[in-house]
Amino acid sequence: MQADSSSKKPITIAVLLSLLVGGLGGAATEIGPWYFQLQKPSWQPPDWLFGPAWTTIYVLTSIAGVKAWRRADELQRRYFLGALLLNLVLNLLWSLIFFTSQRPDIALLEVVPLWLSILLMVLLVRSYSPVSSLLMLPYLGWVAFATYLNWTIVKLNAPF
């Protein structure tokens, strides 16, 4: 059974989850002396760009989640919600490992399941909400880029 398209519950949940994860991730992302002393590649975007990039990703992913939720049946919703919760935990965990624990090398290992969790969400929804899967592609691309950046930082600064 499909949800009433006017239901505000999915929108409220999407906004609250985005704010929670964005807030926790932001709190875990301390840009301080340790981070500034790291050697970084010349092609790394400026630090100020990461906030707007993540905000855009959270907005697009929230819209995708709401669209998918409204088009999904009960079983599809459970799968999507499980994949989303896994993704949110992995997203937050990466920030904690990289910034709080100051271990880009371990974060590089953790980013693989993070990227795969995004791919899982894209693949789960594409059959019943193709627009949702497209809206999540910037997230997939950004984390792929961030993985390469993470790898480069490890290469330039190892060992940790």
Radius of gyration: 17 Å
Number of strands: 0
The DSSP helix count reads 7
Which segments are poorly predicted (pLDDT under 50) over 5 or more consecutive residues? none
Broad CATH class: Mainly Alpha
Class from secondary-structure proportions: mainly alpha
- What would the average pLDDT be, to the nearest integer? 90
Query: What coarse outline follows from CA principal-axis ratios?
Result: elongated
Helix proportion of residues, in percent?
A: over 70%
Compact description:
With 160 residues, the chain is mainly α. The protein is 79% helix and 0% strand.
Description:
The model has no long low-confidence stretch (mean pLDDT 90). This protein is 79% helix and 0% strand. The longest helix has 27 residues, at 74-100. It is elongated and about 50 Å long. The chain contains 7 helices and no strands. It is mainly alpha-helical. It has one domain: TspO/MBR protein (Ferritin). It starts with 8 loop residues before the first helix and ends with a helix. Helix 1 (9-28) packs antiparallel against helix 3.
Task: Note the topology.
Elements: H1 9-28, H2 33-37, H3 47-71, H4 74-100, H5 104-125, H6 130-135, H7 137-157
State the main characteristics.
160 residues; mainly alpha; Ferritin; elongated
